[in-house]
Give the backbone structure.
Amino acid sequence: MDASAETRARKPPASRKIAGRGRPSRSDDKVNYKEIILDGAEHLFAQHGFHGVTTRQVAVEAGVDVALVHYYFGTKRGLFDAVFARRAEILNAARLASLDAYERDNAGALTPMGAIAAFIDPMIDISLTGGPGWKSYFALVAQVNNTPAWGGVTMTRFFDPVVHRLIDVLGLAMPQAREQELYWGYQFLTGAMMLCVSETGRIDLLSEGACRSSDLEAIRHRLTGYCAAGFCALVESQPSVTSLSAT
Amino acid sequence: MDASAETRARKPPASRKIAGRGRPSRSDDKVNYKEIILDGAEHLFAQHGFHGVTTRQVAVEAGVDVALVHYYFGTKRGLFDAVFARRAEILNAARLASLDAYERDNAGALTPMGAIAAFIDPMIDISLTGGPGWKSYFALVAQVNNTPAWGGVTMTRFFDPVVHRLIDVLGLAMPQAREQELYWGYQFLTGAMMLCVSETGRIDLLSEGACRSSDLEAIRHRLTGYCAAGFCALVESQPSVTSLSAT
DNA sequence: GCCTTTTTTCATCATCGGCTGAAATTACAT
DNA sequence: ATGTAATTTCAGCCGATGATGAAAAAAGGC
């Protein structure tokens, strides 16, 4: 009784600063519950999927009332979409910059390996240095990627431009490659990569500790070489294009 | 009123034969609701995941009362596990037979490509000829494979023996390969393969129709060659083993 | 200090969802 | 036909869940 009374005190100011102001958050040092909710939701959605999480769990995780979640995001779906969209732009920008830089600095000497590295590295780097939020985010994307019901549409909506950019650079590196081979090659690449960044711990169990899901550096160069060789094999075994000479 | 009365008639014998008997189903031509429930659950779980499906939906899909679902499987989790386990044995047996046959018929001339084909082909063949239930099942496995919370454990529990068999054969085909490279190579392989069999339609959208998720024959030879080349690249770029000459 | 706007909580609704007990139905053995 | 055991349905409990309206609290402008 007494304890519960204390618990339900208006708002235990506890550690966090108190929020609530007129103008939308001006990126001050003040607490931003909207972001805190997104963080909590990101973590939970990544671990249990959309249907495996309740708005109340999100509220608890964020230390907030359920109503606040709906105040900011309307519906549960809206919350999920906000989580998904939040980091997509940043990731896309990083990848585009990486691909641009690669093409600029290696004009005339583009290789499949280089293009793939330019695509993969930003993700690995962010996962290594971006903090736990990013790790959750990647696991979430991996899950969406494998969701039959709406995964295809969602991935397409958020990530297609960057992927097409990758395909372009790969096309420059392998001028004789057919379009389909590049698309299939990307499909294999993304399947492998997404499984890695979701860090399910499978390989740890399978290899009895010889490999660790969390060892992103081990993944980075292996995945790059693996896929580069795969792309080359795809192109080499494609039905021969009769005349190759350009110009 | 009248229509609803007709609807709630004891049991509209409709098309299906009426079930209910003493001894457990003796594989007659009679209806087996247990299997029908599993089929429905498989379909729904594959599409929406464990938490995205209610036992009531499963009951409707199977044309059965909810209570029957619990009568047969106890809990929703029990139902899910039953779905997951049902086809695992068959798939494992087919893969083991394929790997055994490959090793027997090609003793002394084992190749990475051959080993990988022996692992992949049964899945592709079953997906092509096994009917829609199998397609659902593969999509389900793909989803579990990418589930951070419990995917690793589940995959390990059901599929590890076959995977270790594959690793063994790959080790015979590439004696100089280190254990870790084989495990990582398998991780990439399974990520790519699972994404393909979950048929999310992503590549259809991405390629604007140039590639089709459902085109398993296109996947079969491409994925095999891609991964075979990938494995070789992994092994070639591994820290050099100082002395290689066997015997 | 007041007024306005925004943020946060409280209390609650209507529905859903997993599950269960008991009755009804069926199949089979004798 | 009668009894027995397995199957199937009915009806409902009870907690959880998505969502909402209104009140309270906080922030800022003046």
